[in-house]
Amino acid sequence: MAEEGQVIACHTVEVWKEQLEKEKESKKLIVVDFTASWCPPCRFIAPILAEFAKKMPHVTFLKVDVDELTTVAEEWEVEAMPTFIFLKEGKLVDKVIGAKKEELQQSIEKHAVVAAA
Using the chain's own numbering, where are the disulfide bonds (predicted)? Predict the structure, then answer.
């Protein structure tokens, strides 16, 4: 399992569900990166997301490969990569589609601040 300040890769549905349950209890913001190994914008944004994770240990960052966990991607209606969903206590609070660094950062900061309050 990854330490705080890292992006946690979910390779199985079990790990995905385990992470969601764990974070639901902690009330932390969860940012999920729906990605694909063949997707150039996903590869572009991955190191940026890793930087955010290092700077924001109060936020949980998860990564889901849509080819690995197709059922999870379908469940969250992911149609383009990368898609970032923002969850609070298991509920969807925001979504960013595309490798948009500024929009991603603004959404993280907006929802993470609410969690700290």
Answer: 39-42
Polymer length of the chain? 117
CA distance 63 to 51: 14
Domain count, the chain: 1
DSSP H helical segments within the chain, as ranges?
Answer: 13-26, 40-55, 70-75, 101-116
Q: Is the dihedral of CA 8, 13, 15, 21 positive or negative?
A: positive
Q: Quick one: which of 90, 84, 100 has its CA closest to 35?
A: 84
| CATH at 46 | 3.40.30.10
Q: 88: which strand partners?
A: 29, 91
pTM value > 0.85:
yes
Residues with a known catalytic role: 39, 42
Task: Tell me the C-alpha distance between 65 and 77, whole Å.
Answer: 14
94-105 confidence digits (pLDDT tens): 999 999 999 999
Q: Where in the sequence is the domain holding 22, given as residue range(s)?
A: 7-116
Answer yes or no: is 2 within a domain.
Answer: no
